[in-house]
Amino acid sequence: MIREEIERLLENITTLAEAAALASSTALTDELVSHGELMSTLLFVEILRERGIQAQWFDARKVLRTNDRFGRAEPDIAAVAELTQQQLAPRLAEGLVVTQGFIGSEAKGRTTTLGRGGSDYTAALLGEALNATRVDIWTDVPGIYTTDPRVAPAAKRIDVIAFEEAAEMATFGAKVLHPATLLPAVRSDIPVFVGSSKEPKAGVRWCVKPPRTRRCSARWRCVAGKRC
After folding, report:
1. Could you read off the pLDDT of 4-17 as tens digits, one per residue?
2. What pTM was computed for the model?
3. Cα–Cα distance between 222 and 88 in angstroms, integer?
């Protein structure tokens, strides 16, 4: 079944590419680029099943309702919450579910994409909609450091950081997961664990919303900069 679905998607890519060669549009581009997410998750489900792990594939476009700003669509938070509870939550009650990030659909069913950081944003949106106790995000970035370890080898890894601090670091040039993508988790007080797939033991950090009573004793947290 998965093989047949991938073959169907490959045929669809050919059709879309031919259409794009004649008259391209942002809507067509979104439809085309969504196939990477769809196929990679189908393959991942197959790998899990081969290893004896039962997993269901779920099309995120069924629940990630957005506006029609193709390329940088904005989610309809209320609709996402309602659709997620109706369609995704029951699947999760049955077991492991593999779905996509970055892609959604507008009111007419046309595929949209969330733009840069869309996969992390999707994780936070679904975590909020499912009332999750934690959101885990795995990247290829080995943690957050007090400064760029390539420039200063003595830089220390930061294990706990507030969203506000990470936002300032990103603004001033630090290569960190941009907190804007995690706003759904922030507003719902959901802690976010970010780990490195390359260094799962060493490259992890917590990004948490600090309590209102928190007082920071350190005079500084990190040094960041942008290359001119």
Report:
1. 999 999 999 999 99
2. 0.84
3. 40
